[in-house]
Amino acid sequence: MSELQEVQITEDNVNMQDPLKAAELAAKLLAVQEQKHSIETPYGMVTVTIQGSPKPKRPAIVTFHDVGMDHKLCFRSLFENEDMYEIVKNFVVCHIDAPGQEEGAAVYPAGYQYPSLDQLAETIPSVLQYLNFPSIIGIGVGAGAYVLARYTLTHPNTVEGLVLVNIDPNAKGWMDWAAHKLTGLTSSISEMILSHLFSTEELSGNSDIVRQYKTAILNSPILGNNHLYWNSYNSRRDLNLERGGDVTLKCPVMLVVGDQAPHEDAVVECNSKLDPTQTSFLKMADSGGQPQITQPGKLAEAFKYFVQGMGYIPHILDKKRSMG
């Protein structure tokens, strides 16, 4: 494993009142310190991308992406946003790509047995052990949010906090299953994935962002692999979360969903099942199905408050207030 390069960026040479400068430095910090690893797990090889270097007495930020994406498509807009500069500077970030979903992945042969979402959750201990990360703050979207939630239920002592975007904690019911099968008769895999990621209004509006993701998904060279991850998502088990029960997320949780987004009802229901003293619920207006892509600045700001609430880097927000 090659040595991580340390980039010295101090308060003195960063003008935080210049958003463009901050964004450039955040992107530079991520690019210079990026390291890729292929890690063997009980359920196949997993590619992880490390950005930054571990900080003493601070958890790693671990991300897990949604269906039809890799970590870049899912999280690049968020982590390169100017408002994430302080987070990038103060935490090591670990992006996990689900098996076969990473850029340049080989296409799986016909009949390949892809891991279930529960099994994907059990790839995370191998990753953390390999990287020597004792604790994490997880950020997951869609299928990735489910994976991180499942991991947290099984390994609660290693998770300090969770940001779950578009989580659906429920297994598909018979009506959902039947509707999914019928949709599959008339829609391509790409179209079904797109309708999972974006609302009907977004898809018909065809904004630049939606068009970019349509192109990426429709032309994916690993569409067969994407299909396998999609099938695992649609075969997920119920998390069986229960407010006040034995099965619950015991760490601080921030639930995020866009207003009128495809998964709004599921996230609202998830919120009703979690401890209200540990859970914050962020419903983002005008953000559509992928708030981390369409409103990265707002989500970054909320994430900074979330991290501050956990007792880390309290100076960030105080400094920003003094500047305002």
UniProtKB/TrEMBL annotation:
One of its GO terms (cellular component) is cytoplasm. Keywords: Cytoplasm, Developmental protein, Differentiation, Neurogenesis, Wnt signaling pathway. The keyword Repeat does not apply. It is found in: Cytoplasm. GO terms for biological process: cell differentiation; nervous system development; Wnt signaling pathway. InterPro entries: AB_hydrolase_fold (IPR029058), NDRG (IPR004142). Contributes to the regulation of the Wnt signaling pathway. Down-regulates CTNNB1-mediated transcriptional activation of target genes. May be involved in neuron differentiation. This is Protein NDRG2. It comes from Engystomops pustulosus.
